[in-house]
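Forwarding the complex inputs:
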Amino acid sequence: MNAQPIPSPAVRRLSLYLRHLEQLAAEGVKSVASNELAESLNVTAAQVRKDLGYFGQFGRPGVGYRVRVLIEELRRILGTDRTVNVILVGAGDLGRALLRYKGFRRKGFNLVAAFDVAPGKIGRAVGTVNVHNVSELPSIVRRHKVKLAVLAVPAEVAQETADMLAAAGIRGILNFAPATLHTDADLAVAPVDLAAHLEELSFRIGHHL
Amino acid sequence: MNAQPIPSPAVRRLSLYLRHLEQLAAEGVKSVASNELAESLNVTAAQVRKDLGYFGQFGRPGVGYRVRVLIEELRRILGTDRTVNVILVGAGDLGRALLRYKGFRRKGFNLVAAFDVAPGKIGRAVGTVNVHNVSELPSIVRRHKVKLAVLAVPAEVAQETADMLAAAGIRGILNFAPATLHTDADLAVAPVDLAAHLEELSFRIGHHL
DNA sequence: CCCTGTGAACCTGTTCACAGCG
DNA sequence: CGCTGTGAACAGGTTCACAGGG
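Prediction (whole assembly, four chains):
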């Protein structure tokens, strides 16, 4: 019934709204208006309303949005109303740090296992999970019905690793490798290039502004 | 002479182009056409040409772009043709991993020091730098003329830390804290919300597509 | 003839502004 | 009367398409 002309920037802002709503809930705030939310997040009130409007009608005219209700709706929309299993591939420095990062769990993501090819890393525990040989990846992915993977391998092997993940049934990759992945349309990729963000800042401060 | 109506997505793609060009250079490739570059990076050829066109005329009709030349131009534009000093604040798990991450150095960024408030962390070395008390931050920033900071502190103290950085003369913040920073227009912020990217993937695979 | 550089057309996403509900 | 929900107007970016240079 509903087509899907949802701007992807709007989807990304949903996480932003959710994050702030969770904080408001922790502070005991019961309801919030679009302009308050907007102000805290450096967006416009119309944008908040429009973004939420793509998914339903969650607010009450004259009142605003019920914080608890909106949090639940957003989690449902994002698919994090249930625990989402995730694996991590590449237990180098960055990979091991991500394994210890508590932010994922707080948001409903459960790291079930890590993988690497280096014998020195395999068998060790990092954070709450063990590092396995990549050969075990397909069976573990199947067993835990994992759909998302965090990719933290060197750029040189990023593409082949992504292909392997696709073959194992992974549907989404959070890619920290500084490489562009070429994948089928049914495999979603979110690239995170840490150095690129610093370059952007370097540009912005180096010139005008 | 040139106004500055440069789309910020275009600036972000510059890093992408640079990354691929560096790889081509390593492979010994001398020149490249916009459509080849485009194909490797999942963008259109027109986009590549238009993006580069905002900054000058770097190509040769009938030939393409000289790889070495374009790399130098892009580094100059991004400001990474010289070493750029960076500090890191917050030596938690994520912070320490970023200190060890080699990708920054490879791109011309030099981490000169890390800072924290926890006595247990201060005085230790992580990667190539030492962890200092934040009280030493202003003097170190001044001494090394640091303009960029990586912020990896807990969300609760992100804003106050950002204010402190602004006061110390920092001009750009790479923000890993899951909090929206409110800063003056002359302080650039690049937010990196790791959990948000996973949520986006969760959304994309949970629905259509 | 190949490939760049670029105005013009197009399109996606943002902001405006107001009708309508509580 | 306050605040949402939303069509309509607007703006920013992307793609097209072609003129022009090597």
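Chain B has a mean pLDDT of 96.
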